[in-house]
Amino acid sequence: MISLPHGKLRLSDANVRKTNAQTGLEALAASIAEHGLLQPLIVSPSSGKKTLYDVHAGGRRWRAIGLLIERGTLPKDYAVDVRLCENEAMASREISLAENLIREAMTPADEAQAYRDIMAEGASVEDVARRFGVTVRHVQGRVRLGDLAEPIFNALAEGKITLDVAMAYGTTGDRERQLAAWERFSTNWQGDNPQAIRRAIAESALSANHPVAIFLTEEEYAGAGGRIERDLFAGEGEGLWLDGELALELAQAKLQHEAEIAALGTRLGWVKPLLVTHVPYSETEDLQTYWPTYAEPSPEAKERIAVIEGRLIDIEDALEECEEGEAEDTLYAEQEQLNTERDRISKTDPIIPDEDRPHVGTFLILDRDGQPCLAPSYYTTQKKRRSVQQGPGEGDASQGDEQASASDPTKPDETNPRSLEEQLAKDRRDVLALHIANDPGLALDITIFELARSFAGHFGYSDTGCAITISDRFEPAGIKSIPESEAQVQLGSIKAALPCDWGQEHNSFASFLAFRALDEEAKAGWLAFAVSQSLKASLAHGQYNNAFQTSLGALLDIDVAQHWRPSAERYFDRKKKGQILTILGGIDPEAAGRYATAKKSELASAAARLCAGETIVQPSVKERALAWVPDEMRFDGAMPPVGQVAQDEAGQGTSQDPDPAEDIGLIDEADAEFDEEGEAEPEPGEAGPADDTSGTEAEPLLAQAA
Question: Looking at domain 2-161, which CATH architecture does it have?
Answer without folding.
Answer: Orthogonal Bundle (1.10)
